[in-house]
């Protein structure tokens, strides 16, 4: 369990994280989404005690990171797969980490096996491909068999097979009851992996909700209707304060209204319907809508 | 939790011992270890154990990069070459002065040449910390050992003995080289190898190197970049004292002689005359200054590590 309370981080006059409060629960994959520069990596660095918060606290199981005696056995994290000495072998890197936390030596070979790197770990880390480095970083996170796992953009640089592997790994780690906190800019990825979503923009919390709710709550979730009396139904819906978009002669899309209400309005007016269904927004659309106002480097017009 | 374990598993006697430890219960109760119970319980290791693990990790890291070997080999080569050169010069001077047949103590030129070596060793000590900032491997280090002081202590505790041992071994090699070269007829000098004096010279040199290297670790923690760290260490060892000496003011000269390099020469009772004569204070005071500089560098490094984001 990761708990953030009123977490703030400023670098000079730039605010990276602003009053962030949330809980990341065990037994689920929590996706951490936001545009570039939204403060995702900073938040993870604050949780790990790498940066000091300007205000607020980040606790792991109720304890600040630096108070953990064997931190790697409680929290495994991969922030940047390339963040290790390029001249050292992955095997030596993991051996040093294992020593520092009193983790049995045999565990190193075990995690390397699990990430499919039994061979590559003998090579200099600088000679590894990004995908291999990513696997090594995940191996380091798994080393201490921790209850809490944090990954910053874990599928970066992985081939499709690697992406599938990471997806499966996240799900199985959560299935074992662990807390899994994963940041990504790949919305489609989160749609497949996450149970719960935390969305931030410009360092502020935008949404903290189950995945299904984020999609359902989107204004882009709409009700599609096919009817031979499109004009009449359109007028009725508009009169009821619903935004209606006409797609074709017989088709309407209504937003900001439930499917039940559209059905009821049509029934009251005696209008025949040939089709009535909800059209779910993809996470991508929901996300763009949520973060539209908080993109750090918006292009030209959008910026105004 | 501990009490629970005693009541379920232990009989009466054990329970009594657990509640009221006798003098024999040297290992103490699990929740309140005595001085001897330094190892603590497996799930609540003591600080000493945590430091030991951090040292183990730094040890693995030190030997798993090539730069360590290069720096140590460079330092040894520098010491041997420097010592032979200085020794040859000394022997030639003696011969020219008509003191043919005078004895040169083999470890003397080695100690004189020791002023060159700290730079190669400082490079190694620099890399121990700055390479982690350059590669951002420091994130993994601090994730594994979040207590900043423990990381710094572990690095110092690995660097110090490695450099001390490397210094003594290189010094022994250099002493051997000096005595072999000076034994050649051309110098007309005789070499002396008084065992006690040689051992003392080599041990003091090893300690001098170790302290300068630990000082460098402290500077590295504060400065973080390799170039910056080496510049600061160079200034502390050579630049600042030279500038102070050039000003010629007596206070400035006195101060320059207390800076780490000259303090080290004083501690080793080096016959070197860079400053126009032996140091005007005893060896013990030289050691004290050296330890003081090292402690100050570690304190600054620790303060920066604690305050600044990684």
Descriptive account of the structure:
The complex is a heterodimer of chains A (304) and B (310). Chain A has 304 residues and is α/β, with parallel strands linked by helices. Chain A folds into two domains: 2-209, Rossmann fold (3-Layer(aba) Sandwich); 222-279, Alpha-Beta Plaits (2-Layer Sandwich), CATH 3.30.70.100. Chain A contains twelve helices and 14 strands. In chain A, helix 3 packs across helix 4 and helix 4 crosses helix 5. Chain A starts with a strand and ends with a helix. The model of chain A is unreliable at 300-304 (pLDDT under 50). Chain B has 310 residues and is mostly helical. Chain B has two domains: 1-44, no CATH class; 46-307, no CATH class. Chain B has 13 helices and two strands. Chain B has helices at residues 2-9, 12-19, 47-63, 66-96, 107-113, 118-135, 138-144, 148-182, 195-223, 226-247, 250-256, 260-267, 283-307, and strands spanning 103-105, 190-192. In chain B, helix 3 (47-63) crosses helix 8 (148-182). Chain A binds chain B through residues 45, 48-52, 65-66, 68-72, 75, 77, 79-80, 82-89, 92-93, 95-97, 99-102, 140, and chain B through 42, 44-45, 49-50, 53-54, 56-61, 64-67, 131-132, 135-137, 139-140, 142-147, 307, 309-310.
Give a quick set of tags describing it.
heterodimer, A: about 300 residues, alpha/beta, Rossmann fold, Alpha-Beta Plaits, 2 domains, six-stranded mixed β-sheet, four-stranded antiparallel β-sheet, elongated, disordered C terminus, B: about 300 residues, mainly alpha, 13 helices, 2 strands, disordered N terminus
Summarize the structure.
The complex is a heterodimer of chains A (304) and B (310). Chain A is of the alpha/beta class. In chain A, 36% of the residues lie in helices and 27% in strands.
Q: Label the overall shape of chain B.
A: globular
Question: How far from one another are the termini of chain A?
Answer: 40 Å
Task: Identify the CATH homologous superfamily of the largest domain in chain A.
Answer: P-loop containing nucleotide triphosphate hydrolases
Low-confidence stretches of chain A: 300-304
Biggest sheet architecture of chain B: 2 strands, parallel
Beta strand % of chain B: under 5%
Helix vs. strand class of chain A: alpha/beta
| Strand percent estimate of chain A | 25-35%
Low-confidence stretches of chain B: 1-36
CATH level 1 class label of the largest domain in chain A = Alpha Beta
Helix content of chain B: over 70%
Identify the strand order in the major beta sheet of chain B. Answer: 1-2
Q: Label the overall shape of chain A.
A: elongated
Percent helix range of chain A: 25-40%
- The order of strands across the largest sheet of chain A is 6-7-8-3-9-10
Q: What is the tally of helical segments of chain A? A: 12
The averaged pLDDT of chain B comes out at 84
């Amino acid at each position: 369990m990761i708990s953030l309370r009123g977490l703030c981080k400023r670098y000079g006059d730039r605010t990276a994280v602003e009053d962030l409060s949330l809980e990341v629960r065990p037994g689920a994959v929590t996706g951490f989404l936001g545009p570039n520069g939204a403060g995702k990596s900073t938040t993870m660095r604050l949780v790990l005690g790498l940066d000091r918060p300007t205000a607020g606290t980040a606790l792991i199981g109720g304890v600040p990171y630096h108070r953990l005696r064997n931190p790697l056995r409680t929290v495994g994290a991969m922030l940047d797969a390339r963040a290790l000495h390029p001249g050292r072998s992955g095997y030596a890197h993991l051996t040093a980490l294992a020593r520092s936390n009193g983790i049995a030596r045999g565990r190193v070979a075990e995690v390397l096996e699990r990430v499919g790197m039994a061979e590559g770990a003998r090579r200099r880390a600088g000679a590894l491909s990004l995908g291999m480095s990513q696997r090594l970083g995940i191996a380091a996170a798994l080393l201490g068999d921790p209850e809490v796992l944090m990954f910053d953009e874990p599928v970066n640089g992985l081939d499709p097979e690697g992406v599938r592997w990471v997806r499966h790994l996240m799900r199985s780690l959560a299935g074992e009851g662990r807390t899994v906190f994963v940041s990504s800019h790949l919305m489609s990825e989160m749609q497949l992996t996450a149970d719960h979503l935390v969305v931030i923009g410009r360092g502020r919390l935008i949404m903290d909700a189950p995945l299904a709710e984020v999609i359902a709550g989107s204004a882009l979730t709409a009700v599609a209707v096919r009817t031979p009396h499109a004009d009449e139904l359109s007028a009725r819906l508009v009169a009821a304060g619903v935004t209606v978009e006409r797609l074709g002669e017989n088709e309407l899309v209504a937003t900001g209204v439930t499917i039940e209400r559209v059905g009821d309005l049509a029934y009251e007016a005696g209008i025949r319907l040939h089709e009535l269904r909800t059209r779910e927004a993809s996470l991508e659309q929901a996300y763009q809508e949520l973060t539209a106002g908080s993109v750090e480097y918006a292009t030209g017009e959008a910026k105004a | 939790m501990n009490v629970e374990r005693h009541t379920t598993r232990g009989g009466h006697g054990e329970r009594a011992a657990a509640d009221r430890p006798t003098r024999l219960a040297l290992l103490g109760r699990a929740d309140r270890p005595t001085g001897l119970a330094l190892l603590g319980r497996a799930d609540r290791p003591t600080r000493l154990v945590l430091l030991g693990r951090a040292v183990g990790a730094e040890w693995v890291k030190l030997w798993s990069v090539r730069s360590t070997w290069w720096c140590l080999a460079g330092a040894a080569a520098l010491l041997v070459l420097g010592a032979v050169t200085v020794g040859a010069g000394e022997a030639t001077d003696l011969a020219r002065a008509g003191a043919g047949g005078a004895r040169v103590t083999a470890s003397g030129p080695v100690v004189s040449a020791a002023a060159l070596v700290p730079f190669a060793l400082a490079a190694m000590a620099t890399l121990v910390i700055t390479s982690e900032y350059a590669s951002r491997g420091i994130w993994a280090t601090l994730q594994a050992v979040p207590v900043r002081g423990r990381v710094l202590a572990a690095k110092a505790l690995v660097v110090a003995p490695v450099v001390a041992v490397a210094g003594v071994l290189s010094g022994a090699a250099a002493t051997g080289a000096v005595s072999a070269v000076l034994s050649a007829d051309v110098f007309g000098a005789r070499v002396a190898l008084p065992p006690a004096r040689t051992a003392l010279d080599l041990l003091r040199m090893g300690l001098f190197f170790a302290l300068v290297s630990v000082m460098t670790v402290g500077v590295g923690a504060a400065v973080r970049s390799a170039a910056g760290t080496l510049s600061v260490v160079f200034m502390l060892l050579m630049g600042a004292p030279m500038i102070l000496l050039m000003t010629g003011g007596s206070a400035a000269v006195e101060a320059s002689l207390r800076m780490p390099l000259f303090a080290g020469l004083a501690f080793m009772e080096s016959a070197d005359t860079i400053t126009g004569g032996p140091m005007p204070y005893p060896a013990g005071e030289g050691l004290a200054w050296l330890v003081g500089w090292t402690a100050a560098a570690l304190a600054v490094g620790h303060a920066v590590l604690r305050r600044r984001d990684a």
